[in-house]
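From the shared-data thread, chain only:
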Amino acid sequence: MRAAAVQLNSTPDYERNLEVAERLVRAAAGDGAELVVLPEKWTVLGDAETLRAAAQPLDGPALTAAAGWARELGIHLVAGSIAERVPGHEKLSNTSILLGPDGERLAVYRKIHMFDVDVDEVAYRESAAEEPGDEIVVADAGGVPLGLTICYDLRFPELYRILALREARVVTVPSAFTERTGRDHWELLLRARAVENQVFIVAADQIGEAPPHYRSFGRSLIVDPWGVVLAEAPDSECFVCAELDFSAQDRIRQSLPSLRNRREGAYRWPQASEAAARLAEPTTAGAS
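Structure, as tokens:
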């Protein structure tokens, strides 16, 4: 399978974002990509008010357009993520959708982990406008089991291990990774998730600035199960492609069978209350 990661500099300008996304999806398909991945919030990237104004249901015009591209080009398209307006819910969802070569919706994944963090002097509170999902999703992409994740999910290895145990061979990571954290963590985390779970990673990131204070890292990556970077995007709106060699993946899993060597009986999760208490305790450097 030939896969592509599309890198965008999305802003509150919805029409402009769709035009660039369509152009790059078409270019990636023209380069032979059978699986194309768009970044997080590819339709609109901005503050909570901007997202709420631009939010759409799954049958809205953005995903209808994306389904048309997938159908016309005959590709599997992971339509990054959009701000989804869910009937009966006050808050939005951050939602990734897998579209098939016939334009049909094959899978829907709503981001599980909310980006509620402080980076330098900027406070990000994704949960103020969006609610977390609670379903882990693996879907069939032309006979290839595909795991769906979004951006901050990358910091939660439990999710990726479950995807691997559910037989995912490829995991997609549409993102708007901050420039500050991306410098030190983006490639490190992507390669770690790939090696730990012996999966291909296709990570499509935002690049550049968007109001009011967003600055995304870019450097979209495609990584193989050995942790080798197969493709890396430059600092511009573009796409990168790579061949996903599943026979090589089989050889890695056979020769280094870490997934089979797991010992589930030895893994005992602490109780939630116990874990929370330990994490809240101050630590002393050098304590034994």
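The longest helix spans residues 179-197.
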